[in-house]
Amino acid sequence: MTDPTHNALGRLRGQLVVSVQADDDSPLRDTAIIVALCRAVLAGGAGGLRLRTPEDIQAARLLTSLPIIGLTKTRHPGFDAFITATAAEVRSVVRAGADIVAVDATLLSRPEPLEGLIAAAHDEGALLMADVSTQGEAEHAYALGADIVGTTMSGYTPHSPQQLAPDFALMAALQARGLPFIAEGRLKTVDDAKQARRAGAWAVVVGSAITRPDHVTRWFVDALGN
Q1: What's the burial of 71, exposed, middle or buried (CB within 10 Å: 0-12/13-18/19+)?
Q2: Which of 139, 169, 205, 220 is the most exposed place for a label (fewest CB within 10 A)?
Q3: Residues 6 or more apart from 143 whose CB is under 8 A from it?
Q4: From the CA atom positions of the chain, what is the Rg in Å?
Q5: Which pLDDT belongs to residue 6?
């Protein structure tokens, strides 16, 4: 684990990172629209961005020198992990301009070993964020050399709590173990973000609640029983 106080992670400490992503079938899935959303959240005071394609990362890099967490989402036949699951994807994200590469670091089946992804990020001069769903996965990722872990995948693996709320229990466990973490996943309100900060989060990532009106609309529609 790199000392997080002397790099991009140090700049993110205490900050709100906004995840600016759109599903492939979303009307927002266009790099020009992603850039416009980035401009909006940066104007609002975001301390960093989380972006999902090399094209989006490269375009956003022209807007800001703030830290960018980059990733890809690619399905690999026969494997479950799809967030930056190969060394080639890691390198493409870094070369596009990301300071930190996010990868799936769960127990889900993967096309390449996690340690190879960590090495690829470090070889490219970037840091690696291990997206995990449990405390055990976080400890394993740190043992392999990850620079920070994120609670991103809790609820998205069969062996993590199947809940719609943020996994504050996981955050508390990581804090108790002295493991730095970025809070991410299902944070939908200001109160969620504040609670994650109180739980010891190094930084807080919020995505859908800020940048995905299609998702937020569905929350309201479902709540109204339509």
Answers
A1: buried
A2: 220
A3: none
A4: 16
A5: 62
